[in-house]
């Protein structure tokens, strides 16, 4: 799927994508730099979109690590499956609220998310954040891109420690929340 077709898909599904454009390289780098992936064995991405964050994770993860990418948009999933044919990357066309069904009891080192929590119902948000907290290994982190600093309070309900950083090198400028 071409970049222009992906943008059309993005705009026609704003209620589930929650974004006006895909994440910039600067934002992706800022997000992924919050995690040391050198010893990570299992990584999760929530909201694969156009694969820009997926590519950033793949470029930094160990060759023997596994990456599970959740994306509810079938068009984005199909495009990502073509973009990432590697056996250690699994593109999952399902809600991140079903995370536990794909872990087989394993713990996750890092969860990278670009999910639009401002647009999700309280029930879906609770399911995703509760499962994320329970899925993290000791020392793991849930790392979220968001466009409102007010979401920090939401993440503090689930995680004991939430740190926020900001980048203007994205349209719109964005926060990266690191939740542990």
TrEMBL record:
This is Phospholipid N-methyltransferase. Keywords: Methyltransferase, RNA-binding, S-adenosyl-L-methionine, Transferase. Pfam families: RrnaAD. Transmembrane segments: none annotated. The lineage of its organism: Bacteria, Pseudomonadati, Bacteroidota, Cytophagia, Cytophagales. Gene3D superfamilies: Vaccinia Virus protein VP39. It comes from Algoriphagus ornithinivorans. GO terms for molecular function: methyltransferase activity; RNA binding. SUPFAM superfamilies: S-adenosyl-L-methionine-dependent methyltransferases (SSF53335). InterPro entries: KsgA/Erm (IPR001737), SAM-dependent_MTases_sf (IPR029063). One of its GO terms (biological process) is methylation.
């Amino acid at each position: 799927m071409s970049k222009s077709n992906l943008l059309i898909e993005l705009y026609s599904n704003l209620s589930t994508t929650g974004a006006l454009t895909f994440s910039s390289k600067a934002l992706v780098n800022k997000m992924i730099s919050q995690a040391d992936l050198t010893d990570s064995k299992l990584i999760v991405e929530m909201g694969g979109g156009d694969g820009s964050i997926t590519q950033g994770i793949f470029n930094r993860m160990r060759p023997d690590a596994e990456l599970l990418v959740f994306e509810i948009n079938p068009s984005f999933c199909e495009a990502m499956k073509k973009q990432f044919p590697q056996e250690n990357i699994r593109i999952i066309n399902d809600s991140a609220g079903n995370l536990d069904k794909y872990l087989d009891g394993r713990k996750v080192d890092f969860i990278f998310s670009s999910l639009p929590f401002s647009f999700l119902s309280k029930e879906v948000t609770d399911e995703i954040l509760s499962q994320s907290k329970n899925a993290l290994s000791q020392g793991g982190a849930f790392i979220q891109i968001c466009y409102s600093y007010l979401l920090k309070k939401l993440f503090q309900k689930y995680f004991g420690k939430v740190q926020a950083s900001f980048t203007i090198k994205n349209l719109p400028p964005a926060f990266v929340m690191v939740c542990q």
